[in-house]
Design goal:
single chain, alpha+beta, about 35% strand
Length: about 70
Amino acid sequence: MGGLRVETKHGRDYNVQSVGATSAVKEYVCPGCSLAVTPSTPHIVAWRADGLFGEADDLAARRHWHTHCWRIS
């Protein structure tokens, strides 16, 4: 996985991490376009960095996005 960074979108901070093709082994549904993020597809994992219920809840709510969908969200 790529390095963890914090990005601000719509006034909220998100932890963002890149996932390379070799590390992408499962299929997920992108919340940006509702299409599959298929295995072997480089993508982004994002979760709230400033959630109200603590880090464990934030991690549990992380989502896998197509890189393009995350950029335009």
